[in-house]
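RECORD TYPE: inverse folding
INPUT: structure tokens
STRUCTURE:
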């Protein structure tokens, strides 16, 4: 180790910043965040620093640096663009035994400021000892993505219960086990999903219960996995995927996404293929209940968003009735994913002010939709599950007054390497499809916005580099 990382308490303590530009302003902001009492020495100030001075958040000495400025300070930062001033600050500070940082001059620094992931009171600091601040920032970005934003809330909640837990569990081992159980169970998840009051009650109940008879409560995560590209999974979805004991997934969840689930989690396929149901909906609902009651962390992973044509509502209804803890994680729905990856904005000031999502599923050989409501000017229609009924859908829209030349796009396997976009009109699409060997899943987008595809398509999947087939 070349340096020693420490956490310095500067609350209410005098800090010196020499320099009045943007860089100095950033350093001042950081010191203020940590509660420092900041004095800026600089003949002139940038707009940001001026406003901090005028609102009395920092003190200002409007002149050149003098060595005496370092007296009675706890740290000094030099951020001027004048080499000799920076050196004077470093020398003066070191004579006083004061930690000093000179921006971009590691050789003059006795301390550097790490990149910080702030989940106060939890802080993660990344330092490269000044070797590569950019590397530290990149690493920080990765940490930001895996540490839930509400870690700080969790730490505060636990802090409030430390005394009680110490009294209840006398030896350190049982205390540690207790905290581990809390941190990997529903209490932590309740905090992360914004239910702090319930979390506090659950934590209290866990403490009150006799530890020997404590049964581990299971929970269910109803998670949207997005339309296919694993990069479109949310941070929260990924975290829950990595802590589940068992996963129930359906056909739309791609293999790449399934690979993100904790390796030793049990995998149960409950997929549905039009008519062929591997597991009946009622059985899925009951399985979720049974597994959670066995104390498992159950991941119900669904394509797209669980609340959009996903029966997510039915599944959690059963859980709610049984009093099982659950949370719902939204996913990028096929409409949003396919539209983006096909370069078709679903709304656009010149073409469409509204967008409707409908299901084109066939019932008794017809598609049961409110056609009149769909055939509206300046409205985009997105049709899920419309592959089998596509001819009926195009015909009905024309029969209800939509022009046969209205542009239509059919997005097949959207957001994946197999994505293909077929573009035509209400009149021509059935014909185009007859020659294109289309396979599910596909999404149909109807409306003037489809015209933008030609200009805005940006995603070129490996399998179909020639974007348009029609
Ligand atoms: N809950 C899902 C939708 C489930 S219904 C969501 O929010 O996206 C299943 C339908 O979604 C499919 O028939 C198809 O119309 C659409 N769909 C899902 N993923 C798709 C994809 N990658 N490309 C095209 N359509 C898709």
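DESIGNED SEQUENCE:
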């Amino acid at each position: 180790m070349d340096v020693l990382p420490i956490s310095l308490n500067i609350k209410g303590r005098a800090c010196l910043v020499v320099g009045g530009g943007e860089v100095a302003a950033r350093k001042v902001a950081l010191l203020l965040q940590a509660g420092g009492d900041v004095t800026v020495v600089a003949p002139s100030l940038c707009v940001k620093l001026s406003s901090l001075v005028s609102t009395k958040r920092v003190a200002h000495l409007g002149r050149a640096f003098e060595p005496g400025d370092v007296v009675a300070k706890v740290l000094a930062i030099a951020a001027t663009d004048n080499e000799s001033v920076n050196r004077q600050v470093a020398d003066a500070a070191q004579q006083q035994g004061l930690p000093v940082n000179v921006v971009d001059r590691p050789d003059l620094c006795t301390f550097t400021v790490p990149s910080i992931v702030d989940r106060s009171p939890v802080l993660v600091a990344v330092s490269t000892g000044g070797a590569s601040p950019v590397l530290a920032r990149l690493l920080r970005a990765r940490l930001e993505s895996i540490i839930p934003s509400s870690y700080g809330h969790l730490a505060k909640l636990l802090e409030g219960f430390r005394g009680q837990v110490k009294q209840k569990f006398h030896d350190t081992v049982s205390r540690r086990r207790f905290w581990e159980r809390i941190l990997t169970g529903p209490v932590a998840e309740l905090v992360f999903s914004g239910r702090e009051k319930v979390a506090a009650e659950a934590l209290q109940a866990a403490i009150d219960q006799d530890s020997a008879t404590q049964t581990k409560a299971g929970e269910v995560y109803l998670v949207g996995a997005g339309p296919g590209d694993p990069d479109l999974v949310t941070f929260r979805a990924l975290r829950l995927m990595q802590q589940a004991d068992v996963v129930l997934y359906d056909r739309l969840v791609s293999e790449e996404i399934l690979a993100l689930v904790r390796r030793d989690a049990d995998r149960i396929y409950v997929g549905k293929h039009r008519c062929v149901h591997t597991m009946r909906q009622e059985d899925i609902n009951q399985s979720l209940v049974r597994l959670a009651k066995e104390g498992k962390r159950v991941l119900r992973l669904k394509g797209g968003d669980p609340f959009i044509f996903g029966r997510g509502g039915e599944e959690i209804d059963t859980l709610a009735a049984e009093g099982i803890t659950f949370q719902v994680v939204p996913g990028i729905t096929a409409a949003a994913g396919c539209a983006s990856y096909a370069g078709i904005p679903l709304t656009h000031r010149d073409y469409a002010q509204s967008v409707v999502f409908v299901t084109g599923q066939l019932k008794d050989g017809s598609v049961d939709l409110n056609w009149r409501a769909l055939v509206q000017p300046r409205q985009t229609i997105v049709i899920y599950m419309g592959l089998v009924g596509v001819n009926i859908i195009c015909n009905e829209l024309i029969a209800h007054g939509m022009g046969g030349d209205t542009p239509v796009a059919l997005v097949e396997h959207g957001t994946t390497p197999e994505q293909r976009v077929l573009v035509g009109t209400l009149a021509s699409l059935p014909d185009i499809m007859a020659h294109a060997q289309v396979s599910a899943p596909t999404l149909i987008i109807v409306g003037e916005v489809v015209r933008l595809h030609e200009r805005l398509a940006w995603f070129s999947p490996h399998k179909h580099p020639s974007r348009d087939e029609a």
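NOTES: The pocket of S-adenosyl-L-homocysteine is lined by residues 227-228, 252, 302-305, 308-310, 333-334, 338, 384-385, 411, 413-415, 440-443 (CB under 6 Å).
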